[in-house]
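Board notes, transcribed. Complex of a protein with zinc ion.
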Amino acid sequence: MKDHLYSIFNFKCPRCHQGEFFEDRNPYHLKHAGDIKEKCSHCDLKYSPELGFYYGGMFVSYGLGVALFIAITVALYIFYPEFHPILLISLLFASLIVLGPYIYALSKIIWANIFFSYDEDYAQLEKKSKNDTKQTKG
Ligand SMILES: [Zn+2]
């Protein structure tokens, strides 16, 4: 579990925790929001094993949205019990707009972490130098 959390919150490769997962680490750079690298630069894990692999991330995104809804509702009941429903709706709407890109990125890397697990052997791989890859290719 700890391994998955490291990968998820640092946006790192789920298998080696060394390579970057997204083209752009900042989910608020909307031009590349959610763009996943083809494979890990460190361990060569192919991030998209099949076409449409990340459609399943929709379910994760839905779950995160529901968790956000519950958290905001509970917080309102605790800190401001006499709230008007319009306030709740406004807060939910605003938080979904503000956190949307982050939730989108989280949903993809959480989905990847469901299928890929941390492997210490890959983490300790020496980063391939360009000379090594040339030699193996011949
Ligand atoms: Zn990797």
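Residues 2-126 form one domain. The pocket of zinc ion is lined by residues 13, 15-16, 18-19, 40, 42-43, 45, 122 (CB under 6 Å).
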